[in-house]
């Protein structure tokens, strides 16, 4: 038997979570592997992101989100231009190794930012890269060229939290 979390409706849970959401969002160019989008949504819920932008029209695997999608604000943008219009005026930080100008450890992370992740095959388009105020890379130490997009998204969200949460950042204690 499945028991509803906190014995509240989905809308009541969303209402309770709204004031404690964090001042950043993520955007993902629809990945070719639909499982990754669901996994990213599940991870984004764990960090209580403001919203999740899905760029493109490819399907995603809802079961991979483990039911967390219903608690999240998911903004579906049919293409890159619609996405850029939706985030106009907000800092856009691309996560793209080949075009990075800084690293995850050094990048500025202002309130209201949107982290942007490309698809597994194509990364971020030139159009989206040009719209980014920063492009960062996650340091790598092996011979592999890139992280899986779901892992990269989790690592970036974790770094954001480490910087902002007093439990992860001794300077905030």
UniProtKB/TrEMBL annotation:
Annotated ranges, domain tRNA/rRNA methyltransferase SpoU type: 24-157
Alphabetized InterPro entries for the sequence: Alpha/beta_knot_MTases (IPR029028), rRNA_Methyltransferase (IPR051259), SpoU_MeTrfase (IPR001537), tRNA_m1G_MTases_N (IPR029026)
Molecular function via GO: RNA binding; RNA methyltransferase activity
Keywords: Methyltransferase, Transferase
A single BP term in Gene Ontology: RNA processing
Source superkingdom: Bacteria
Gene3D superfamilies noted in UniProt: 3.40.1280.10
Pfam families, per database record: SpoU_methylase
Name this protein carries in UniProt: TrmH family RNA methyltransferase
